[in-house]
């Protein structure tokens, strides 16, 4: 077993099971490229401030770049006795460049180092996830554009309420994704602050230049307080919150798709590229993809809870508990990434809206009842009076097995003399939708406007 970096202070050796228990190399190797970038910036800063010579910094940078090549070629695989990625890199660096490698950790602690790495990692992942949100939005928009005139029942309490344009329904998810995209942008700004130079907790005795290393790493600012710099994981919690919201949105859409694919709704059919069969029931075609997304949402929310609880009792400054932030964060990042990708594929090629079933669905119920009341209200009948009247018509029609469109002109007139021939036109599903032309409503003019705005947002117009 290799000698521990800190072992000179110790008499005995670490129990093998504790070595394993303590080590984070099994997962924090994920940070390696960011760790190398952080170290390169730190090395350059040490030279700029005269703490090491320019030649020494040059050697450090070359050695660190060589480790990058080795890692990318699959030739850097530190074992568990290396403890973590930071020690593993430092040890390999010293093997490669000799004693000068031991100078890299001057004026630095693993505490500000790991804080730097995690922020650099998350910044890159936020950029990736925001791009995936854009792809998801683009496919929603595409589907919306071809389905402005497709109508679908709108629900409240999962009871038929008023029909809406399918595009309007899809664009609701576009808006949720838009907020997710914005939220991640805001969190990116708070993630993009450098703790490097906070040292172990109290700063350092060396004349470092924190602004310079921050600038080299593309950070927008530096932590004002070293204790806060090494202890803060707010940005990770904020990210997990945003990640949870993305998953909530994907999960709601998933739930709708699962319902829509059921025989009871039959609003969509699943194509073979995104559905699976049953091992026993030959007739089954299962919506595994949305079900999995719905399931994975729970996992991401769990990570948010986990991180909140992890932090709540920690005294300042660094505590080893903080090593537990990584697996939660990495898993949440990956889960959001694969879920967004899967949902985008599902929308793009995994589902087909069953136009004839949707047309049938919006014509076969009383979801035009509000429009009858609105019709009377527009003719001067107080709305509540009109509402009560229509309530009675619905009751008698239901009993007679009729829909509102089946009532004769005499029946309408008997109900209220204000009814005229145009009532039939006013209660067609098309008209019911078209009439809701208030800003943000489902009226076709509004939906077309929303599509134009969405296109502009994605830079597509
Ligand atoms: N592996 C550690 C982590 O992930 C790195 C920081 C360790 N610092 C320390 N003082 N033990 O948090």
State the main characteristics:
461 residues; Fumarase C, Chain B, domain 1; Fumarase C, Chain A, domain 2; two-stranded antiparallel sheet; two-stranded parallel sheet; 19 helices; 6 strands; elongated; binds arginine; Fumarate_lyase_CS
General description of the model:
The protein has a two-stranded antiparallel ribbon with strand order 1-2. The model has no long low-confidence stretch (mean pLDDT 96). The protein is mainly α and 461 residues long. The chain has 19 helices and six strands. Helices cover 61% and strands 5% of the residues. It has three domains: 14-106, Fumarase C, Chain B, domain 1 (Orthogonal Bundle), CATH 1.10.275.10; 111-360, Fumarase C, Chain A, domain 2; 364-457, Ribonucleotide Reductase Protein R1, domain 1 (Orthogonal Bundle). It has helices at residues 16-22, 25-28, 32-48, 54-72, 85-97, 110-145, 166-191, 210-216, 226-231, 234-261, 288-312, 325-350, 355-363, 369-378, 383-400, 409-415, 423-426, 429-434, 444-457; strands at residues 151-156, 159-165, 193-194, 221-222, 268-270, 351-353. Helix 7 (166-191) packs antiparallel against helix 10. The termini are far apart. Bound molecules: arginine. The site of arginine has 10 residues, from helix 6. GO terms for molecular function: argininosuccinate lyase activity.
